[in-house]
Amino acid sequence: MTEQQEHQQGQGQGQGQGQGQQRPRRWTAELIPDLTGRVFVVTGANSGLGLATTRELARRGGHVVLAVRDGRKGRAAADSVAAAHPGALLDVRELDLADLDSVRDFARKLRAEHPRLDVLVNNAGVMAPPRTLSAQGHELQFAANHLGHFALTGLLLDRLAAGRDPRVVTVGSLEHRRGRIDFDDLHGERRYSPMGAYRQAKLANTVFGYALQERLAAAGSPVRSVLAHPGYTATNLQKETPVAFVRFVFGRVLGPLLAQPAAVGALPQLYAATAPDAEGGALYGPDGPGELRGTPKRVALAPAATDPETGRRLWELSERLTGVRYEPA
Predict the structure, then answer these.
(1) How does pLDDT run across 180-195, given as a tens digit for each residue?
(2) For residue 150, how far is the Cα from the chain centroid?
(3) For the chain, what percentages of helix, strand and coil (3-state, to nearest 5) are there?
(4) Helix or strand holding residue 316 (H, E)
(5) Residue ranges making up the domain that contains 303
(6) How many Cα atoms within 13 Å fall on the side-chain side of residue 314?
(7) Residue 20: CB partners within 8 Å, gap ≥ 6?
């Protein structure tokens, strides 16, 4: 019996059902199945959760496209993975998710190279900068975290539909539960809070991932949309934010005390991307107290994430702002 089969057997055995019953196994990267022949696109793959995800996918034989804003950093990341796993199949492609022209250019080139894709991991993110506008005039966090991934997914969806066990994995945050989408001041023109805008963007990620699954299922598409969040994980996201207070509290005070390593924080998105029993429309996060640390389990979505009216409004707005309309295959 393989490790994956043992894990699935363990999942079917309830806890506390009598002595002698085996407890379900905690999911680790060792349970990722063989990924040979499958193509994965990981945004923000040069550091943190994206690099940890790339490393494990490549280790199990996956062909990984590292979608990165900085090509030099992306190549350095790919070199580090290749050094640890000789023969790893890695491609580095530049992508600025905050610039919709860059998203379209990236998608056009990727489509020309790959008649099919198997998994898109929408991982990249920006956290709590001062109010900044994207190339198209959208608030930066909403643009990079949500609109860029919305457009990228739509532009690649037919290639994913041709894949084997195809999935879109959208990486959210615990902060989505504290978020609110201000449709009347989406870009913070009247009032801007760096963390408020971050929470809005992460809620938008989660609304999108859930609404996408609803649409895919209704269309009979083979693609699954799965959500994940890393809990509290030590990454450059907190350390490199321009806001000094956020950088100090999250990067230097709480981080060393509470944050788990990126290799552990990436487990929920790896589970969402590879586990046979990962469910479309479900959110996976750490199993520890407060979902801050631990190994993957299914966790609750904020009520706003599954609200049909919020989903409809955000979807229509995103199509209008990106110019990308979905036609699920």
Answers:
(1) 999 999 999 999 999 9
(2) 12
(3) 50, 15, 40
(4) helix 308-322
(5) 31-234+262-322
(6) 28
(7) none
Instruction: Say how many domains are in the chain.
Output: 1
If one counts every other C-beta atom within 10 angstroms of the C-beta of residue 213, the result is 22
Q: DSSP states of 33-54 as a string?
A: PP-TT-EEEEETTTSHHHHHHH
CA dist., res. 219 & res. 221, Å (int) = 5
Contact status, residue 169 vs residue 118, Cβ threshold 8 Å: no
Q: What is the structure's pLDDT at 240?
A: 52
Residue tagged active-site, from 198, 210, 232, 284: 198
Q: Distance between CA atoms of 268 and 241, rounded to whole angstroms?
A: 24
pLDDT tens for residues 202-222? 999 999 999 999 999 999 999
Q: Is residue 24 part of a domain?
A: no
Q: Known catalytic residue: 210?
A: no
Return the exposure string of 304-315: e unless at least 16 CB atoms fall within 10 Å of the residue's CB, then b.
Answer: bbbeeebbeebb
In a domain, 19, yes or no: no
**Residue range 283-307, pLDDT digits in tens:** 999 999 999 999 999 999 999 999 9
- Residue 56 corresponds to which amino acid? E
Which helix (H) or strand (E) segment is 250 a member of?
none
Q: What is the CATH number of the domain that holds 270?
A: 3.40.50.720
Tokens of 81: 């993975």
In the numeric block, which tokens belong to residue 55? 């490393």
Alpha-carbon span 101 to 136, nearest angstrom = 9
What's the pTM?
Answer: 0.88
Report phi then psi at 199, rounded to 5. Answer: -65, -40
Query: Which pLDDT value is given to residue 25?
Result: 73
Query: Are 149 and 100 contacting, i.e. CB atoms less than 8 angstroms apart?
Result: no
Amino acid identity, position 215: R
Sign of CA dihedral 67, 72, 75, 77: negative
